[in-house]
Amino acid sequence: MRCHSHCSHAELHGVLYNCNCRLKCSDKFTSSETDDLFNSFFALSSEAQKVLLTSCFKSFQPKVVSSGAFRHRKLSFQYFVKSGMPNHQVCKTALKALFQVTKGKLDCIAKRIMQGSQNVPSQQGRHMNRPNRISATTRQQVMDHIKLYPTESSHYSRSRNPHTARF
Q1: Would you say residue 34 lies in a domain?
Q2: Is residue 103 part of a domain?
Q3: Residue 158 lies in a domain
Q4: Does residue 162 belong to any structural domain of this protein?
Q5: pLDDT for 102-150, tens place per residue?
Q6: Angle 88-108-54 (CA atoms, 0-180°, nearest 5)?
Q7: Which candidate, 10, 19, 12, places its Cα nearest to that of 79?
Q8: CA–CA separation, 94 vs 158, rounded Å?
Q9: Considering its fold, how many domains does the chain have in total?
Q10: Is the pLDDT confidence value at 10 over 50?
Q11: Range of the domain at 89
Q12: Which of 20, 52, 18 lies closest to 37 in space, CA to CA?
């Protein structure tokens, strides 16, 4: 993700202005609207950003299903951005450019919508599958063993410090 304050306007919105899709995304937003969308998006918290991005997705059943495919697509998506009164349909590239998010973030949101878990908070970093983690009891036993060794005051502060550190 790029920082908005360190990028030129053309660099930041260049992908949107070069969008040559059938939806004509580059014609739907003025320069000030893209700035307002970007700034309001990054003023939100992380969870609020996810909610906003999720609200941009509209899912529907695929119109064409290949009969010889091993895996069929469960859902297709359209992307909408609210700027002013109407919702503007945009392509995925334009959605990425407007909010300066990665394709992976949009794919993750699409995956959560397909699984039906878009309202469940993210569990990133909250797993307990550390196979080499030392248990609290083992850790306490090690600390107790270390305390069995005799301590000695540090020679750096022995004469000046009434609260002598003991090692």
Answers
A1: yes
A2: yes
A3: no
A4: no
A5: 999 999 888 888 887 766 666 667 777 778 888 899 999 999 999 999 8
A6: 35
A7: 19
A8: 67
A9: 1
A10: no
A11: 4-63+74-115
A12: 52
